[in-house]
Amino acid sequence: MAKRIVLTLAVTAVLVASLGFVKFRQIQTAIGQAAAFQPPPEAVTTVVAAEEHWPATLSAIGTAAAVQGVTISADLPGTVELIAFDSGQTVHEGELLARLDTRQEQAQLAAAEAQRELARVNFDRMRGLLDENVVSRAEFDRANADTRQSDARVGEIKATIERKTIRAPFTGLLGIRHVNRGQYLSAGDALVTLQSLNPIYVNFGVPQQAIPELRLGREVRITVGDTPGDALRGRITAVDSIVDESTRNVQAQATLANPGGVLRPGMFVQAAVALGGASSLIPLPASAISYAPYGDSVFVVTNLKDANGKPYRGVRQQFVKVGTGRGDQIGIVSGLKPGDEVVTSGVFKLRNGAAVLVNNKITPSNSASPKPENS
Questions:
Q1: Which of 4, 140, 324, 335 is the most exposed place for a label (fewest CB within 10 A)?
Q2: How far is CA 292 from CA 169, 320, 336, 348, 354, in A?
Q3: What is the pTM of this model?
Q4: Contact 56, 279 (CB under 8 A)
């Protein structure tokens, strides 16, 4: 009986060991196949790197500002009697915009003018009597003072009436009207904004290291959004005398022609200051660059070998130094050499050593001066 039990246990142990060995071999085979598995190549587009010479520029973000810009408001309180402008209208210097009710001032002016006329008649009479020694010099001086006081009173009332007549202080473009006829205005209440748009200022900040480059008269190229083909050109006309302590930037101001009012005060713009000379760069489409906190990189297509020594077309990650941009292109300062085949689309799905299949039937835009159809 004991021998039978021992034999049974021995046979069971052999069977378990045999099954474990078979399963171990299966797992080893699966691991080996997984290690040798090569994922299918990723479809990408590429461009061959070529060196170009770009004009040296200093790029900055700026804001458009009016050379002259005011909010026209009521100087004195009163009721709006007349509105002589429309929202968005172009007006010229001195043109009537609005008038407040001046009926009370007009009545006061009539009384003051009558008083002035009486004072003048009395003064003329006193002058004749003084020549005949009928009145004293003191009475004559009092009449003279009354005449001058009457003139001053008339001038004061006329000035009040003029202050209730609101005119354009300079030629420019009006904004949206904020008042209506019959509305009561307090002193300082806004009627409308007025901006002089041509020429126009662009204010932008640059790092303190670039102060020596901000020379008066240097050309500045201004673009709005993604339309560099519609760039406006101006020149630096002022550089601030202090550096911002929080940003260590200095403010510069460019003045440029603005025909048609393309730029409006407050608009976000991109400024490029021409520094003269040129720098050697390798331009690539912006989609070719992988931006990361630890460094910017691109993927270069090259010949690689797998674990079994079999050659294939794959990519290696190459860290680069990024320079300025122009249109769809980003200039690469270092890290690439002419002739390198760089991936321009499909970058997000690549890793170092990944196999790729190049298909350049449709490639991303790579123009220095793009003109989008729907811009």
A1: 4
A2: 53, 11, 18, 12, 19
A3: 0.57
A4: yes
Question: What pLDDT band is residue 77 in, cutting at 50, 70 and 90?
Answer: confident
Q: In what order do the strands lie in the sheet with 184-185?
A: 165-167, 96-100, 78-83, 184-185
pLDDT tens-digit map of 245-275: 888 888 888 888 888 778 888 888 888 887 7
| Superfamily, domain 102-163 | Helix hairpin bin (1.10.287.470)
CA distance 257 to 198: 6
DSSP summary character for residue 257: -
Nearest to 78 by CA among 218, 182, 177, 4: 182
Name the CA radius of gyration of the chain, rounded: 42
Domain ranges of the chain: 42-55+279-358, 59-67+196-275, 80-100+164-188, 102-163
What φ, ψ does residue 340 adopt, rounded to 5°? -65, 140
- Residue range 59-67+196-275 forms a domain whose CATH class is mainly beta
pLDDT digits (tens, 9 = 90+) for 300-337: 988 888 777 788 888 888 898 887 777 778 888 888 88
Q: 299: which 2 tokens?
A: 């993927």
**Of 233, 194, 171, nearest in space to 71 by CA:** 194
